[in-house]
Amino acid sequence: MSDETFDVIVVGAGVLGVATAYYIQKNNPDKRILLIDRLSAPGQANTAMSAAAVRNMFASSTNQLLTDTSIKFFEHIQEEMGHELMFEKVGYLWLLGEEQFNHESVKLWMERMERSGVHFRVYNKEELKELIPGLNTDFSNDEEAELMNLREVAYGLFGADCGVLDPTRLVDFYYEEFKKISHVKPRFGVNVTRLLLEADPKLDLPGEPFVWQFKRVNGVVTDKGEVLRAETTVLATGAWANELLDPIGMNSLLKAKKRQLFVIHAQDKKDLLDLLYTKGFNELGCIPFVILPTAGAGGSVYFRPQLEEKGFWIGCGDKLGRAYDYVQTEDYANSEISYYELSLYPVLSKYFPAFADVKPVGGWGGGYSYSPDAIPTVYKENGVIVVNGASGSGIMKSDALARIADALYRGQPEAELYGGRKIPSDALSLKHRQVEPENVVI
Fold first, then answer.
1. Torsion of the alpha carbons at 413, 417, 422 and 425, rounded to the nearest 10
2. Structural domains of the chain ordered from first start
3. pLDDT tens figures, 234-266
4. Which of 16, 24, 51, 318 has its CA 20 to 30 A from that of 367?
5. Which burial class, exposed, middle or buried, applies to 266 when counting CB atoms under 10 A from its CB (0-12, 13-18, 19+)?
């Protein structure tokens, strides 16, 4: 089987991969760019398993920049380019206890958002009760709530520019735009087993590369033995990145963690329908994406409205207690009903009794790729560009990260993001990192 050669190979056709392929092709129109994925279509892995919520409400100015510019581009796609993303500005609502709201980290978070021009509003308990009559803010004499370490809601932190979208439609936008200008047909069902690490220059000695030789990645090898060569290989493989980087000795500093979502339908359940169609927060007349006060060892139960299905998606950003994995395992795709029943449901139904005695109609799981500082990594080394480590917020940062990857490919010192704002192209690298660590991670 003969080798095939391309200018760029992009491994991974989730939202980060297709967006990166699009921008590199757009700004390098003569290059032959091959987009490949192990699944049968783009956006079918962790992108599709996401809660698909987008926010600019971060404490880190780095994440604020990445998300704010990406969200504005999503608005441009939908409103000016006419590509329906189902982007709905339902808003984000953090419910906070008294102690949480007055914590130094929350004060710093709000100060940084004010400084960056991120719009938000603070609601007190009385205002929240008026807007959401079904919210329970009183746990006095509730032994179960005390046992579960639940905090009474004292404040709400609301961001109106945040919302939800359909991740498959976002992937479709980038993918279709890429195909219009691509010289090479994307390939699916292609499983990359290893990166092609070779001596630079090759001396054709048996057993090379040796320790005394320079080395670079010159493409990939598939499970069918195909050798696909490229001057640059882009890895946008999310929670699977370590499987390819470790064997060649490149440290990604990333870990994977399983996350799950459960579907609740509100049809024929008046209390749930009343909650779903809560008015006063947005033009859609629905409840925002709601994050409950942190309980126990740091787990935040959340839910998002699903207007099309007349229901909710329920999840949790559990921290201590949910294992990190070095690579994503097969069981990630499966939801655990016992996890919902024993961990999420008791918390959810205490704050919102409308969920009492309601069971999920379905669920799924997926892998999040976490970086140590909860800021994405985009860097170029040894012939590889790695776009990864979005820490559960890859969709909402995808446009900015793809533009940064393209700037690195072209050797530009700065990446111009949507709206003209700029960031050093190596700001998210491992060696020359210029970021503010993030502490508002769901």
1. -30
2. 4-50+168-253+374-424 (3.50.50.60), 92-159+255-370 (3.30.9.10)
3. 999 998 899 999 999 998 889 999 999 999 999
4. 24
5. buried
